[in-house]
Design goal:
The protein contains eleven helices and eight strands. By secondary structure, the protein is of the alpha/beta class. It has a single domain, classed as 3-Layer(aba) Sandwich (Rossmann fold), CATH 3.40.50.1820. The chain has an eight-stranded mixed sheet with strand order 1-2-4-3-5-6-7-8, with helices on both faces.
Length: 271
């Protein structure tokens, strides 16, 4: 589905179902150098089980035009504009990696308009090594291979996902990078992650339950890097759930069914 957001054409995957604002809605937000396709299984399943799905390509990524966000805050503004444009009064937000920070910031700003928050592969602060930031700008192919190597728990995982997931990750990253000839979205996304400072304030401000879906073998955002957010949320009296998935950073493709189960059980739990 294409629509105009802030004067630019924006693509949202709806999971094979027409948009229906009358159903409960969930927004899926991808991470750096990714797009809506990383949520393929989760978005399609929920779309066929009672949810209105919006798996978005962020501005300047893949099928979406517009200026690629230079910060978490800019991207959060875009997510809110998306909901406003479609007339969605209340929605769950699900984000992965950089997308988890965007979901967190947008949820804090939405207040009671956010029904649930799911943070997949999250950390705060989400610092990126200076060498990787430099490499993403000047040697993006080298940086892409490095990130895809460290994003997997194994290239020969018991599920069999390792080999194809690694190759698919490289292909996706190359495609997203080529989709924007004006801006290096790889570098811009990393800088946005590295510079975001509002995580603790945002988690304390949310007004909905939150699920942390963490990869036990995640080398990019290890589970210990989310403990500060978890502690802050609990200290602020938030409803917190934590799911530990036996994989690395790309939970949605390494263990798609377990990731779907964690998200689906959380979203569909009785209020």
């Amino acid at each position: 589905m294409y629509l105009q957001i802030n004067g630019a054409q924006t693509f949202c995957h709806t999971g094979g179902k027409p948009f229906d604002a009358g159903q409960p809605s969930v927004v899926f937000i991808h991470g750096a150098l990714c797009d809506h396709s990383v949520w393929a299984l989760q978005s399609r399943h929920l779309a066929h089980h009672g949810w209105n799905v919006l798996a978005v390509d962020l501005p300047g990524h893949s099928r979406s035009g517009g200026e690629a966000p230079a910060s978490v805050e800019q991207a959060a503004d875009f997510i809110i504009a998306l909901l406003d444009t479609l007339g969605v009064q209340r929605a769950a937000l699900v984000g992965h990696s950089w997308g988890s920070l965007i979901a967190l910031e947008a949820t804090a700003r939405l207040g009671t308009r956010a029904s649930h928050l799911v943070l997949v592969g999250t950390a705060f602060p989400m610092k990126v090594s200076p060498a990787l930031i430099e490499s993403s700008l000047n040697e993006p192919e080298k940086a892409l291979k490095m990130v895809n190597m460290f994003s997997r728990s194994s290239l020969a995982s018991p599920s069999g996902a390792g080999f194809w997931a690694y190759g698919a990750g490289l292909a996706l990253g190359r495609r997203v990078l080529r989709s924007n000839p004006r801006v290096n979205v790889f570098h811009r996304g990393f800088v946005a992650c590295d510079s975001y400072c509002g995580g603790e304030q945002a988690i304390a401000a949310i007004q909905c339950p939150v699920l942390f879906a963490l990869g036990a073998q995640d080398q990019m955002t290890p589970p210990k890097a989310a403990q500060g957010l978890i502690a802050t949320a609990r200290a602020a009296g938030k409803m917190v759930q934590v799911a530990h998935l036996p994989v690395g950073h790309n939970q949605m493709t390494e263990t798609p069914e377990e990731t779907l189960r964690a998200i689906g059980d959380f979203l569909n739990a009785p209020a």
